[in-house]
Structure formats: structure tokens, C-alpha cells
Specification:
The protein has twelve helices and nine strands. The N terminus is likely disordered.
Length: 322
């Protein structure tokens, strides 16, 4: 762990180092690949990934193509980042799954989350919520507990190893509640089954379902963040309705570990610039999300820190890939 901490501090210092220019991509090819470990289905990840790729293409004056690699609890997409050359031609989106999967899939990951991947910058924080059909009798956390006392409730998530998966496992043990996880390749697929009455609820980013809640198709039962979601001020947090239970995800950008510190520093600056571009800020406004306050090296440190407490929770909750 000392070596890991040293590597993170060195990386942070190099990212923070000033550069003469950052207008050109480190990639010497005509196209940069931006890996999104979710399907091209209009999810928060896909929408943000495409907006960011478009903004970066203008900064670098070259094509930045989104490569949707969904499945395997984001392992497939993350492997595409980890296994690429560190030439600046491959970068991609990551979430807290980068920290969760090592303990959830012990010995089964085709990469090392610390040694093979270099987290570059946190983009946004993602408040999570619990959604049911608007016609569901489950309107509060108390209703959820009551229903789960009489039968098993199913909850859909964007996939195994996602923060919504972890949130459901925590709810199962802390409420407690009789919940069964049903993983999907992205939240839109889970929503389809929820609307069809195939599952009882979904757990996912609140920003993704703002329109569905306002249209009356879904009900936001509670949010899992520390504060209420601004767009729905009347919807309480889980912590308000029960014991302290808070789970928040994030989107970040990562690159292969072989990328040079100088290129990583330049990427940090370019992504920061892209996140402030009109097309990205307008997308974030539509998604009701704010740009995260990030510092060079902070995301790399968080990934390692999260591994510790997530490993403990996986052991305590009995969370599994099944």
C-alpha cells in the first residue's frame, strides 16, 4: 500500500506541473478512442461521454470516437482502457466500479485496478435514487420495508459491480429488507422491465430519470445522497427516512497506466477545458448535474481509498456477482 500511495503522490505532482501548451492530443493518430462501459442507450454515461468526446475533438482538432463497451459490470469497457497502449489514443469513462470490482470479483478481473489504469479526473458526482412505478404502493422507505417483510422485492441496476448494486446490498442488510438484485446492461434496460412490471424497482442516477418522474411514469421514492436532489426538493433522502445510508457515484476519466506523466497532465487540463465548453455545460444542465470540484491526483487517491471500505462492505453484506 505504501508503494501505491507513493505512486499516487508522484502522479499528482506531475499532473499539477504546468505545461507550455495543451492544445494538441498526445495521440499521433487521426482518431482518439473514448471508451464508455455502458451501452449507447441514452444513459447518463453515454450522453456525457458523447458530449465530452465532441468537446475534446474540437480542442484537439481530431476525431474522438465513442466506443461503447458494455457488460460484465463495466469490466469489458475498463479492460479496453487497461489493455490499450499509453499513447494517448485511448481514454475512457470510469465509475466507482473501478474500486468495487476487485473485492467483488476477486481473482477474476483481467486487469489490476491500480497498476493497469490511471484515473485522470473526476467529472461529476452522481446522486442515486430508488424508483418505482407511479402506480406502485411503495411511496416511502417505510412502504418499501413493509412490502419486503411479506415478499421478496426485486431491484434492477445498471449492472453487477455498480454503485446502485452496492446501494441495494446495503439496503438489504441495514434496513433490513428482502431484496434481490437483477443486473442489466445499463439503467434504460432496467427501466423497460420496470415499466413492464417485471421488477419492483430500479436504483440508478436520479439525473437519468428526471423526465420520467416529471411525466408521472416513475416515482422517486428516495435519494441516496446526503442532500435532497434540487429538482425534487420534496423527495427525502434515505437517511432522513431511516438510519444513515448514503451512497453516491461519480463519472471520471481514466487512461492506460503506461501513459506518460506529461501526457496525463495535458489530458487533465484538456478535459477540464472541455467540461467548461458550452456543449458539455448545456448537457450537464439538462441532466441537472454540476461539474465536480477536482484536483490533480485526487481521483487516483479516491479509487484506492474506496477499495478499502468497499471491500469491508462486500464482506459484511455478502454482496456477490450472482
Amino acid at each position: 500500500m505504501h508503494r501505491i500511495a507513493t505512486r499516487i503522490l508522484t502522479c499528482a505532482a506531475l499532473i499539477a506541473a504546468p505545461l507550455a501548451t495543451h492544445a494538441a492530443s498526445a495521440c499521433d493518430q487521426a482518431t482518439v478512442r473514448f471508451v464508455v462501459p455502458f451501452p449507447a442507450s441514452g444513459s447518463s454515461a453515454d450522453l456525457l461521454g458523447r458530449s465530452l468526446a465532441s468537446a475534446l475533438s474540437k480542442i484537439w482538432n481530431k476525431s474522438v470516437v465513442v466506443d461503447n463497451r458494455s457488460g460484465g459490470g463495466q469490466v469489458i469497457g475498463t479492460q479496453a482502457i487497461a489493455g490499450a497502449k499509453g499513447d494517448g489514443c485511448t481514454l475512457g469513462l470510469i465509475t466507482s466500479a473501478l474500486s468495487l470490482n476487485p473485492s467483488l470479483m476477486k481473482g477474476k478481473l483481467p486487469y489490476d485496478s491500480v497498476k493497469d489504469i490511471r484515473p485522470a479526473i473526476r467529472l461529476v458526482d452522481l446522486p442515486l435514487g430508488i424508483f418505482t412505478l407511479s402506480s406502485s404502493p411503495i411511496k416511502t422507505m417505510a412502504d418499501l420495508q413493509k412490502a419486503a417483510a411479506s415478499r421478496e422485492l426485486t431491484y434492477g441496476t445498471p449492472g453487477v459491480g455498480s454503485m446502485p448494486h452496492l446501494a441495494g446490498a446495503l439496503m438489504s442488510t441495514r434496513l433490513p429488507a428482502n431484496l434481490r438484485h437483477v443486473p442489466y446492461r445499463g439503467l434504460p434496460a432496467a427501466k423497460v422491465d420496470l415499466l413492464a412490471g417485471q421488477i419492483d424497482m430500479i436504483i440508478g442516477a436520479v439525473s437519468t430519470e428526471v423526465a420520467s418522474v416529471k411525466a408521472g411514469d416513475l416515482r422517486l421514492v428516495a435519494v441516496l445522497s446526503e442532500k435532497r436532489f434540487p429538482e425534487f426538493p420534496n423527495v427525502p433522502t434515505v437517511a432522513e427516512q431511516h438510519q444513515n445510508l448514503t451512497v453516491t457515484d461519480y463519472f471520471g476519466v481514466a487512461v492506460p497506466a503506461a501513459m506518460t506523466p506529461q501526457a496525463l497532465s495535458s489530458l487533465y487540463q484538456d478535459v477540464t477545458e472541455a467540461m467548461r465548453s458550452p456543449e458539455v455545460t448545456s448537457r450537464l444542465a439538462a441532466m441537472k448535474l454540476d461539474i465536480a470540484k477536482d484536483e490533480p491526483g485526487a481521483l487516483a487517491a479516491r479509487v484506492v481509498s474506496d477499495m478499502g471500505w468497499m471491500s469491508d462492505l462486500v464482506a459484511k453484506t455478502g454482496m456477490s456477482v450472482e
